[in-house]
Amino acid sequence: MVRRATRRQFLESVGLAGAALSMSESGSLAAMLQEAKPPLVATAETEKPALLGGKPVCRGNWPGWPRPSKSDEEALLEVLRAARWYRSRSVPEFEEKYAALNQAKYCIATSSGTTALYTSLGALGVGPGDEVIVPPYTFMATVTVVLLHYALPVFVDSDRESFLMDPAKLEAAITERTKAIIPVHIGGNVADMDRILAVAEKHNIPVVGDACQAHLAQWRGRSAGSWGTTGCYSFQLSKNLCSGEGGAILTNEEAVADACFAFHNCCRNRPHSRNGSKYRFGRNGNFRMTEFQGALLLSQMQGLEERAQLRSENAAYLTKLLRQIPGIHPAKEYEGCTRNAYHLYMFRYDPSQFAGLSRDKFLRALRAEGVPASAGYSPLNKADFLLDALRSQPYVRVYGQKTIDQWPERNQCPENDKLCEEGCWLMHTVLLTSKEQMEQIAAAVAKIHKHAAELAKA
Length: 458
Prior knowledge:
By secondary structure, the chain is an alpha+beta fold. The chain has 19 helices and 16 strands. Helix 5 (70-81) packs antiparallel against helix 11, helix 7 packs across helix 10 and helix 15 (393-399) packs across helix 16. The longest helix is centred in the C-terminal third of the chain and has 19 residues, at 304-322.
């Protein structure tokens, strides 16, 4: 398929880029801009929205997930028939290959992304009385693991444009109790690791990267999970690389790898380690990955790069199309993000550019057009489970009533509150399609924009 020009490319080709910046889109210029759009987008604008009885723009089915293969079946049956159900061959092989894939020296496979994060904090000695810095726009597990260690989560507000932790606000959150920083590469978009690591190194604080949604994402040409003290991944069912459940820890420090292995595997010594005795005595548990998960992941790694490339190409094209629609703002990437994993395609919605149409109704209209969109996260710093945990007797006993009472005010995140009112998501499977289907998505949004006033009144 031949790529169609973006609005700016079209204007530049006819020498009108400067005019577009200074003139309103009226008369002949408006006609030229209309011609610059892909035909499907331009046509859809004149049609009635599906929510008002019109025909949906997208009539085909979106890909399902996960995608089982014959290779997956054979891998699982081989483990089953060999009665090799305990960590023995498949898991160590996966650890070796996953470390190499991510340019890391060591990989510890775990039972989930949550236990990967939990193990990382445990290996670093995080416990009662400590503080751990987290972002407010993330899945609850990022904070759950802090609570499981009876440490105090401290939130750093979001950069609304990127959906990520605002690095400019990080240093102000650090105290003498700060024991770790957890930047989250949400949706596969990579946090500003240059600025985050600079602050962490200045204060000698470990960085535990939450890359659970960021398979094959890169910062400055290197795997997002290979930066910092550890990088943690999830292989839960929805993830770009999945085995139903499962997780992994990456690190380039052997002592950290040894501590993580011991913490997640009943204090046992990591095979081939050059450090320590057979057992490491201290807090520990059983958070091992099974051979079934390891075998399935080895099989699922086939085609991982090709799928990632397809997501990137379609996301780039969709972004070009959506940026032509007023009020739609695709997530910004920092300069150092050399690859976005696009577990989520995220954008912000501005109702003021859609005749006051609420985000909820916009999403309803988009789903009616056949586009499976959702609203994303709510403010994690205000979640009921978190507030209940902090008000519990153990937390009050450790931190004191005054600290707990002051915690909500200390952890206000006004930019994230706005983000949670604006955010919209498309899952990564939407990007495993074609450029024609990206045009369908843009056409659906353009149709809603054109008829926003009618939709708002309906």
